Amino acid sequence: MRAYQDVLVEEQLRELAGRLRGPARLKADLLTEARHSLQDAVEAYREVGLSRAEAERRAVAEFGSPAQLAPDYQAELAAGALRGLALRALAVSVALMAGGDLTWQGSSWSDGPRPPEGFRLLHASLNGIWWLVTALALAGLLLGILTARYRSSRLPRLGRAVGYGLTGGLMGGALAGGALFGWSISLWEAALSWPPMIIGAALISVFWVALARSARCWFQAAC
């Protein structure tokens, strides 16, 4: 196996890219910055008379091996993935808390008998879950920003803890929301033909696809 000081710039970048997981755009930006730094170093060595190959070897040796560089780059990718997940979770939780009950207003069953106690308890629990998701999303945004700005071994650990909590909260919200929707249909068959319910269900499905992708991206970057 060749020493890293014998690896040229593009080989160095390819190996570094292979070690990194996370948001594609942020990863591309980080690799572009790394390429520019290496190219600047190469040009500086060329200006003092070194050959192209020797200048690249020295630039790569100074820059560090992919094994040395990957942890810091990966921490930045994890922070970016957490910010993305937190932003989407915050948007969804606020939208559902603000607009969830609007799907019921004006329906043929809204003025009828009150639903069972268990239904009301599940509804209240779902609101509690979304408040928790909102709080965790705000914490995730803050930690994502701080981790990207400051190098600290504690911040990435806190970010992972918040990310796990946020992912768990979203899963709980999905299960409770699905159960509430199914229960609503069993109580009021007219819900299946009520336009706000149909539109709400379609939008929520789109939200969950986006959230699932963000959660998967964060998990790959952080774990």
List the helices and strands and how they pair.
Blueprint: H1 9-19, H2 24-47, H3 52-63, H4 66-99, H5 117-149, H6 154-187, H7 195-222
Helix pairs in contact: 1-2, 1-4, 2-3, 4-5, 4-6, 4-7, 5-6, 6-7
| Low confidence ranges | 1-6
Shape designation: elongated
User: What is the average per-residue confidence, as pLDDT, rounded to a whole number?
Assistant: 85
- Range of helix content: over 70%
Record field, number of beta strands: 0
Number of helices: 7
Give the tally of structural domains: 2
Q: What string, H for helix and E for strand, traces the elements in order?
A: HHHHHHH
Structural class, please? Answer: mainly alpha
Characterize the largest beta sheet: strand count, sense, and whether it forms a barrel: none
Rg on CA atoms, Å: 25 Å
Amino- and carboxy-terminal Cα gap: 28 Å
As a percent range, the share of strand residues is under 5%
How would you sum up this structure in a few lines?
This protein is mainly alpha-helical. It has seven helices and no strands. The chain is elongated.
Q: Care to describe what's here?
A:
- The protein has 223 residues and is an all-alpha fold.
- The chain folds into two domains: 4-64; 70-222.
- Helices cover 79% and strands 0% of the residues.
- The chain has seven helices and no strands.
- The protein has helices at 9-19, 24-47, 52-63, 66-99, 117-149, 154-187, 195-222.
- The longest helix is centred in the middle third of the chain and has 34 residues, at 66-99.
- The protein is elongated.
- The chain starts with 8 loop residues before the first helix and ends with a helix.
